[in-house]
């Protein structure tokens, strides 16, 4: 049975905070983002920053949890048997023995993280931004942030086995 690696998920959940700290820093793209979004120093000072960070961690954890199913193909094989090894036929265990750790690398997870950003985040964010009459600069600043974040998150979640030798599959 595939097991969730909550340490990998937690580490991946920190990525949007770390990338955001650099990305939205006024010395990098923060000033351009503020200008394009209509954000002011006064609006920023009036926020409950503690709650923003708490919700950011919680929501980033949910994203990292979801990234397992996008990046780790073995969940698809496990899903075919309902995720319960007790109901699996021997052919499942033979398949997992042969292919169980295939494509479990940082690079593969990063690729799927980037694909998720390109084919899910970009369209979703762009649709909302167009209706909000946001600029393309605003769209690209934010989508690029998520592309980098999801690329790294996918790499961490998928490649954790490769990095730490964590075993995911039990066999009969």
Automatic annotation (TrEMBL):
It holds the Pfam family DUF1761. GO terms for molecular function: methyltransferase activity. The chain crosses the membrane at residues 6-25, 46-70, 110-131, 143-163. This is Protein-S-isoprenylcysteine O-methyltransferase Ste14. Signal peptide: none annotated. One of its GO terms (biological process) is methylation. InterPro entries: DUF1761 (IPR013879). The keyword Transmembrane helix applies. Keywords: Membrane, Methyltransferase, Transferase, Transmembrane, Transmembrane helix. The keyword Ribonucleoprotein does not apply.
